[in-house]
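User: I'm preparing a small set of examples for a lab meeting where we compare how different chains pack in three dimensions. I only have the primary sequence for this one, and I'd like the structure in token form so I can line it up with the others. Please keep the answer compact; I'll paste it straight into my notes.
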Amino acid sequence: MSDVVDSDELLRRIQRARRWAQEQERAWRGRGEEGAVRAVVYETVGRVLDEILTPGAR
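Assistant: Understood. Below is the structure token output for the 58-residue chain.
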């Protein structure tokens, strides 16, 4: 990944990644016990991205 991006594009990419992580979390939670671990992973990724976007909001 050698693209140079400005701060607005970086923000859009982080927001898009956060939405994707939230979608994945919901999808894996719907799979019951077999998806529990992956759901927690995507939840954690979403929390990290939230903290990047809005530090200290949680």
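A couple of notes for your slides: The mean pLDDT is 90. The two ends are 31 Å apart (CA to CA).

User: Perfect, thanks.
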